[in-house]
Each structure stands twice: as structure tokens, then as C-alpha cells.
Design a protein that fits this description.
This protein is α/β, with parallel strands linked by helices. Helix 5 links the parallel strand 3 and strand 4.
């Protein structure tokens, strides 16, 4: 085969030059090669409700969604999303013009940023952040401005003064994530009220990633930013069936926002996937109508798994930040005599047969995240018990 013709410039678009293979691919490959328990990537190892899976099977057999679904999503799902937002949060959206179905939340984030940013616009994101945020801001030509959540009294908290100081005349958009991945922080009403006041004062758009809305524990409460004064008309809210119903492979997400914002996001989204997940959209429409008992049992199950793994990590010597939401636990490895999360995570499979993720990959300020490591607890109880046992008895 002939060698590729050399060029005077790199093949990869310079906006993406800083983004190589994700840490998730590296650590998942390491899990396979070592036979380790993979607590790195955040996906459940069991399927969600049987009745939801059967709804997808029925849709396939009945020929519903096997061809291109409507661009905005099937009407049944858009109606179910709007009803969910109104029933749970008192937010009313027109399913025909204010709801958009996407190929998972990741596409929703990408489409929103591509639609709403011009080159040079600044985007403030809470650091550490889900890794696609940085890539999507870069693809849109924006400039990311991280505001760091810092450990305080057992959790990671937002410094509202730092957030306010980060806003400039070039700031276009706030990218907010609550419940927050990877720290497990759930922003309080006071914090969200301050964010809302800042957005109104500086006339900022807000994209809010709320995919873990149904996974909040203990005394924490999920409060959609769009419910606060002045926010409905400037907020793009993103949700996900994968996180709420444990069918991450179906890739069904959604956007709710005012007509003008949804129209803008759809203009970008139609040139990404156009449509996706046809039969699964019918199943998710049924899932969103599940009784409250499902969501209560889901939270209770995940809370028990959180406590199981957190206890095991504490016994193994980690400092544990017990999350108020999501299905991730952030730990500090310094009590173990370690300080480099990358080196620790790359050695952990051989030492203990467990895979985790170094939080530093979620930071612009890598030094801020260096001693922190994330574990996922959305696994079977027996798997978490075995992982806890391995962590307490390293082989070397």
C-alpha cells in the first residue's frame, strides 16, 4: 500500500489537536487485558426495567421506528418528555416546538454548543467537567473558561465569587451540570439562585446538563435551573434516558427549551445524526410514564450501592467524597501515599484487579485534579463487593 502523501499541516483539525483517545478507551482496554473489574466507565452492568425493554421489542416487531422517525423525535416521546417536566417540576413545554429528541445527551450538548456559539465566545464550565464539554466547545470555536469546584467539608463546592469574576464581555454561555459528574455534587437552591441572578444580570444563555436528575440521595434535591426566575427563556435543559432507565446503549436524550432555542439547536442537530434510535424512542416514552415507585426504588438501589462501595474504599484507605448525586464516587489517594492519579489508575489493575478513572482528565488545571480518582458504582452488588475486597488486599 502506498504511503499517505505528507502535507504541510497536521491532518487533525487544530481545534481538536489537544483531544486524543479518551481515557475511558484506555482504561477499558486495560480492564480487558488484565481481567480487572471495570469501575471506570459509567454504565450499568444490568438492563433497566423489563417492561421498558419489552416496549422496545414491541416497537421493533410492530414496525414502529424501523425507518426514519420525525426529525424532532416521535410525537409520543416529545409528549412524554413535556409531561415529565410538568409533572415533576411544574415546567410547561409545547411538545411540538419546545422539545427535541437527540442521540443521547452527548449529541444534545454538541448541538447546543454548535448552534449557540460563535468563534471567540467564552463558555464558563464547572471544572472538573464531562470530557465532551471541552471538545464540543472547541469544535464550535468557543473558548472554555473553567471555574473549579473545590473540596470542602466532604464534598466539592462552587465558589460563587469565582464564578462571577469569570464572566467577561465575551461570555456567551454558562454550561452547568447538576447533579455533577464526576464529583457527585448537587447544586443547592441558594447556589442555583445565584447562578440564575448572574445569568439574568449579564444576559447569558445557559445550557444545563441534568442527566442524573433522578439520582439524588439523602437530603439533596434536584432543582432544574429553568424553574428559577428569569431562567426558562434563556435555558437549554438536557435529559437522558440512558441514565434514568439504565439503557445507555439506546442513546436517547432530549432538549427542552423555548421555541427559539430549540429551533437553533435543531438546526445544528439535523446535520449531526439527523435522527436516531427510532424503536427505542417508543420505549422511552413508556418509561417516562413509569410510576414514582420505579424512581424511588432506582434511587434506593443506587444509594445502597454507593454506600457499599464508599465503605469499601474507606476501609482500603481512600478519603471518600460521598456523592449527593450521580453514580460516581470521587476519592483522594493522598492518604495512600499517592499523589498522581494517572500513575495510580494505570497501576491499579495489576495491583488490585480494579479499574478507575483519574479525575485530572476532567480538568484544565490538571494539578487541581491530580490526587483524585473516580469510581463508578452502577454495577451489580456482587461486583462491588468483589471490587471492595480486592481494593483492601492489593497484590503488590
Amino acid at each position: 500500500m502506498a504511503a499517505m502523501t505528507s502535507t504541510a499541516r497536521p491532518l487533525l483539525n487544530r481545534r481538536l489537536a489537544e483531544f486524543g483517545t479518551t481515557i475511558f478507551a484506555e482504561m477499558s482496554a486495560l480492564a480487558l487485558s488484565t481481567g480487572s473489574i471495570n469501575l471506570g466507565q459509567g454504565f450499568p452492568d444490568t438492563d433497566g426495567p423489563e417492561e421498558v425493554r419489552e416496549a422496545a421489542v414491541r416497537a421493533l416487531r410492530d414496525g414502529r421506528g424501523n425507518q426514519y422517525p420525525p426529525g424532532p423525535g416521535i410525537p409520543e416521546l416529545r409528549t412524554a418528555i413535556a409531561a415529565h417536566q410538568e409533572r415533576r417540576y411544574g415546567l410547561t413545554y409545547d411538545p411540538d416546538t419546545e422539545v427535541l429528541v437527540t442521540a443521547g445527551a452527548t449529541e444534545a450538548i454538541a448541538a447546543a454548543l454548535l448552534a449557540l456559539l460563535e468563534p471567540g465566545d467564552e463558555v464558563i464550565a464547572l471544572e472538573p467537567y464531562y470530557d465532551s464539554y471541552a471538545a464540543c466547545i472547541a469544535m464550535a470555536g468557543g473558548t472554555r473558561v473553567p471555574v473549579t469546584l473545590r473540596p470542602s467539608e466532604g464534598s466539592f463546592r462552587l465558589d460563587l465569587d469565582e464564578l462571577r469574576d469569570a464572566v467577561t464581555d465575551r461570555t456567551r454561555l454558562l454550561l452547568i451540570n447538576t447533579p455533577h459528574n464526576p464529583t457527585g455534587t448537587v447544586l443547592t437552591r441558594d447556589e442555583l439562585t445565584a447562578i440564575a441572578a448572574l445569568a439574568v444580570e449579564r444576559d447569558l444563555l445557559v445550557v444545563t446538563d441534568e442527566v442524573y436528575e433522578h439520582l439524588v440521595f439523602d437530603e439533596a434535591e434536584h432543582i432544574p435551573l429553568a424553574t428559577l426566575p428569569g431562567m426558562r427563556n434563556r435555558t437549554v435543559t438536557i435529559g437522558s434516558a440512558g441514565k434514568s432507565f439504565s439503557f445507555t446503549g439506546w442513546k436517547v436524550g432530549w432538549v427542552t427549551a423555548p421555541r427559539e432555542l430549540v429551533s437553533a439547536v435543531r438546526s445544528a442537530k439535523q446535520f449531526l445524526t439527523y435522527v436516531a434510535s427510532g424503536p427505542f424512542q417508543y420505549a422511552v416514552a413508556e418509561a417516562l410514564r413509569l410510576p414514582e415507585a420505579y424512581f424511588e426504588e432506582f434511587r434506593a438501589d443506587m444509594r445502597a450501592k454507593r454506600d457499599l462501595l464508599a465503605g469499601g474504599l474507606e476501609q482500603a484507605g481512600f478519603k471518600v467524597f460521598r456523592p449527593a448525586g450521580t453514580y460516581f464516587i470521587t476519592t483522594d489517594i493522598r492518604p495512600l501515599g499517592e499523589s498522581d492519579g494517572f500513575a495510580f489508575c494505570r497501576a491499579l489493575p495489576e495491583r488490585c484487579g480494579v479499574v478507575a478513572i483519574p479525575n485530572a482528565v476532567f480538568y484544565d488545571h490538571r494539578e487541581q485534579g491530580a490526587p483524585f480518582v473516580r469510581f463508578a458504582f452502577c454495577k451489580r452488588t456482587t461486583v462491588l463487593e468483589e471490587a471492595a475486597s480486592r481494593l483492601k488486599t492489593p497484590t503488590a
